[in-house]
Amino acid sequence: MSQELEPNGRFQEVAIVGGGILGMTLAFRLQSQAVRVTLIEAAPVTGGLTQSQALGGFTWDRFYHVILNSDQHLRGLLQDLGVSHLLQWKTTRTGFYSDGKFHSLSDTVDFLRFRPLSLSDKARLAATILYASRIKNWRHLEEVTVTDWLRRLLKELLDGLCNLVPNVLERLFGFLEPFALRVRA
Ligand SMILES: Cc1cc2nc3c(=O)[nH]c(=O)nc-3n(C[C@H](O)[C@H](O)[C@H](O)COP(=O)(O)OP(=O)(O)OC[C@H]3O[C@@H](n4cnc5c(N)ncnc54)[C@H](O)[C@@H]3O)c2cc1C
What is the pTM of this model? Predict the structure, then answer.
C-alpha cells in the first residue's frame, strides 16, 4: 500500500503489512529516508518468528535463533540500529537430546562418537551432507520441500544399490524422515 509519488519518483507514505523482522527492517530503512511508514501487525506484539517469551524469570527466543559471524546483513542492521555492542560472541555447538542424555554433534569427532546413530546410519547421513554441501545452485531448491528433495536424492543415490541390498531404501527413508521433518519445521 502506498500513496502519492513525490516528484523524485518516491512514495511519501507507505503502509507495511507484517511486523516481523522483514517488515520492521523495511520500515526502519524507509523511515531513515524520510518516508512516513505505518506498520500493520495482526499479533499483539511485533517480531513475528523472532518474538521472545518469558519463561521461569528469563526472556528466551520463542524459536531458537543464532547470529553468526557470516550473517553480514543482520550484523549491518544491528550496527545501523546502534545495538551491535550488545552482541556477545560465543562458540556455537550443536547437540541432540536422546535416550535421556545430551549428545554433542559439533565436529567430526563428535559425529564419529555419536551414539544415537549406528555406523551405517552415520555413513548415509555423511553422504547426504557431503552431497548437499557441494550444491552451488540452490535456487531451484526454493520450490522443493526438504522431504521431497531427500527422497529424490536418496532414490538417485541408491537406485543402483537397491538390487544388492533388499529394503535399503525403505530403511533409509525411515531414518532420514525425522531429520527432514525437523529441518522443515
Ligand atoms: C525454529 C526457528 C529457528 C530459526 N533460526 C534462525 C536463525 O538462526 N537465523 C536466521 O536468520 N533465521 C532463523 N529462522 C528464520 C527467521 O526466524 C525468519 O526467517 C524470519 O523471522 C522471518 O521474518 P519475516 O518478517 O519474513 O516473517 P515473520 O517473522 O513470520 O513475520 C510476519 C509477521 O506478519 C504478521 N502478519 C501476517 N499476516 C498478516 C496480516 N494479514 N496482517 C497483519 N499482520 C500479518 C505476522 O503476525 C508476523 O508478525 C528461524 C526460524 C525458526 C522457526
Answer: 0.68
